[in-house]
Amino acid sequence: MKLKIEGNRLVIEGNIKSLKDLEDIKSALDSMKKEHNSIKIDIVDSISITSSVIGYINKLIHADNVNISIEVGTQQLYEILDELNLIDEFKVKRK
Fold it and tell me: How many domains, the chain?
């Protein structure tokens, strides 16, 4: 997995699957929330997302009051987020 920060946008390339991925994503989002109250997450090609990443994004929204929106590049990930009823909460859009 590769991360790139572009202003208030976090671009994630590759599959999100390991604890290291979670730590990298948390670190990036933590540094971004210091400067931005609104963060866009672009998940380019991952077909899944770990529950720990979902939980951390949920914490950012509800505990830290960060406005999060997610753009996904794969139908599989969109369907997972839809099945978990997270489309509206995470403001998920398809590319």
Answer: 1
Domain that holds residue 73: 2-94
- State CA 31 to chain mean position distance: 14
What pLDDT digit, counting tens, does each position of 28-62 carry?
A: 999 999 999 999 999 999 999 999 999 999 999 99
Task: List the CATH number of the domain containing 68.
Answer: 3.30.750.24
Tokens read off for 31? 């540094």
- Angle, helices 19-33 vs 51-62, to 10°: value is 20
Sheet bearing 9-13, strands edge to edge: 2-6, 9-13, 38-43, 67-72, 92-94
